[in-house]
Fold these 2 entries.
Entry 1:
Amino acid sequence: MNKAYRIIFHIDLNAFFASCEIALNPALKDIPLGIGGSSGKGVLTTANYAARKYGVSSAMSVGEARRLCPQLKLLPVNFPLYKEKSQQFFDYLATYTDQIEPASIDEGYVDMTDYLDGKDALSVAKKIQSDLKRQFSLPCSIGIAPNRFLAKMASDYEKPEGITVFRKRTVKTMLWPMPIEAMHGIGKKTVPNLKLLGIHTIGDLATYDDPDKLSKFLGNSTESFVQKAWGHDPTPVDASRQGSHQSIGQSKTYDPPLMGYVDALNALEALTFRVQERLVEADLKAKSIAVSWRDEAFKTTSKQFSFSFHTDALDELWFEAERLFDTLFEERPIALLSVSVSNLEQKDRLVTQIDIYDVDQYPSKHEALEDTLSKINRHYQKSVLKKGTSDDPS
DNA sequence: TCTGGGGTCCTAGGACCC
DNA sequence: TCTGGGGTCCTAGGACCC
């Protein structure tokens, strides 16, 4: 960990959901395949490369995909399968080093510096690529570079199944000619703004001479974007992020939209239930909960509440979810509902703050629970009452 | 061609504290 | 009667990513 020069791999599984389906059923390999939207609505999460030849891509609506490729085969999302394949992928990487930072279900940064220790990076990358294909039927692209940003850009350079090395000294010849929209972190809202400044390539961004104008569009991140355009990225691979969460959320699109309060509340309950389940599975407790909904014009409204404590209790989460929803509810169609918890803490790292009850004091666990619930309810009524009067001008 | 479901991080204003 | 400067936390919304 003390070498000045680091060698980072960014490994990206190609057309991941589709590749998982093909691993399960190899006959699908050469058939144009889309994952998601199998109800005939919605968008595709993934398209395999046979479908991409027709211009079909991820996030495309099923209608348009069908228009481009009428024979497209659609499969529903099989998330448990993808989780399993993802686990195989990261377990395999762990045979090299523990310096792995997952970036999503199908990609990760790996600091290979210590492992390589003089070995040829390109040969190792080739072995990783062929092992993943042979053992798990997972095709991938690999970027090799001295930092995370360059490694990410390198893995994008050739897809599918490419291996690309980005060096500091090739930044001007390989990175700079790339269009600005290819830069990781620059999205479709920012691109037109940058083009207005005459910035069309990553090189244009690197050499732009008016940082004040830039920061109008890039804010506090201006410096870091410009540094990245020069091939600099000091952010280390952070292995502690393995399996960690900043938030856990469940959302669902309703088509047709939900119309009434009761239907919406039922839907909200199901979402809250799942969130709580996942929270418990992850051994976490949350301090904040948020409810949001989207109307038919795609406008999203949200409301959030922070407890004075961390919790994973369904009654507490549901009480707040429902209350938040009540303050948001309007008699209008609801196209999407979402419940999410954040401000998470590992359960075993939390000290029990209040000893609410001592089971031994009570004749039965049931009575203990009843008493606790009524305490909690009183607590909530008080806090709601307080909140209700806080706008009072007196 | 209308727009899934899972996330992360940033921004800006306000409350509150010292 | 007017009112600094620094810091933290909270909230709503938005950009971006896969």
Entry 2:
Amino acid sequence: MESYTQFIQSAINKNETIVFSCNCEVEYSGRAEAFLPAGDRIVIIKADNTLLIHQPEGTAPVNYMKPQTAHRITVTDEEFFLKSQNLALKEYLTIKLNDIYFVNSHSLSDGQKLQLSGSEKDMAEMIYKNPELIEKGFKPLSMEEHTTYGFIDVFGHDSNGTLMIVECKRYVADLSAVTQLRRYVERIKDLKGIDDVRGIIAAPKISPNSEKMLNDWGFKFVAVEPPKFREKFNKNQTNLGDFSTIQ
Amino acid sequence: MESYTQFIQSAINKNETIVFSCNCEVEYSGRAEAFLPAGDRIVIIKADNTLLIHQPEGTAPVNYMKPQTAHRITVTDEEFFLKSQNLALKEYLTIKLNDIYFVNSHSLSDGQKLQLSGSEKDMAEMIYKNPELIEKGFKPLSMEEHTTYGFIDVFGHDSNGTLMIVECKRYVADLSAVTQLRRYVERIKDLKGIDDVRGIIAAPKISPNSEKMLNDWGFKFVAVEPPKFREKFNKNQTNLGDFSTIQ
DNA sequence: GGGGAGAGATGCCGC
DNA sequence: GCGGCATTTCTCCCC
């Protein structure tokens, strides 16, 4: 234990990226209060002093501390602790280390950013460039039009000159998407002093209750798929190929 | 490289929790499309076949695959890949391994769940038990009352018998919190066939525009802090104690 | 730094 | 599985 914790403390001092696996319990106090009883976990301390605690299952960390947190190993009555505190955010975390299985530490170098396509913004741009996806005669005027009550994805008018507000969702449009659209429509009616503004939800799908609410308010749903420029795989494949033996 | 990748493949077969550090590039196709150029990262494959890729900075993983994804090492023209696919979700990820710095694999055991307090639900319970936090004479009738347009945090009536709907937020109430409240108020008016229903936002803070919108609709903001039962630290401390040397 | 909103959101609970 | 919604949301963008 002692050699492991000394190694961790030394790596903390050198600002390296540290990974270790341990049996531990965790206490957190900050935006909420939390306690996690003893179990096996993986702990990562990154170069920017982010701390992550992962259980052996699940996508999200069970506990964490944000970047720029101070970390220190302490020993009391032969019990080992990793104490973290972020004074600026008033957040505190203590890991009681019952056992350490392995530790690794490296200086890692990575200046790359993820290049992603298929976001809601990409959808809005696609609609802006291909307005017929909404309806024949739709003329977009602006994207991300700002109002006090939020900003509008695509703003324009139809073939009759009636103003149109389009709210894009990349997956299933829900109740809050509909109230969001309503907020913009009301705001534009108020700002322009007119009563005739159309509201459109553009998404691949919409939940039944949301569609009911949408129709109750006189708005319209248009089915649109988000664009995916980088697509390389055939998603309809049924042949597992290389993977067939490990399914 | 070859011994590392063989070790990884063998650990995948044994369903262990694997951690390795490497230089790699990543390609993802699924709900969106993404590419991450070469850099140093930490990769975790968990016992439930969740995969996480972390850069040396930041809280969130830069790429990931959900639980129950199949993983396999492949070698083509002396280039090493970790290929992951989740056929059920139609998601695919390929890591091109340029270099591996270390690998570790263990069978980890952890059946514990995080015990958390200070959530929105805790706030609702606190208000239910201490209705004077909202106002003198408030009588709560139910929590999580269900409507077609969502469920209400705390439902009750005031000293005059007027129905009241309370929406709790654990941090700053925003525009969508106000529209959410409005949705419930309108739904209850509609269901009960009455016109007099009060709406309350209970939160520590509310954004200025949200408060304006709230007041425009005749609703009210009440300042309430979320409860924190596990609090052990004095957050107003200015003495850094053990941490003073590493700030 | 605050406001506003998306996210490959995730996770939880309910039906 | 979908629906509805909170989250120690995180992250980005813009003011």
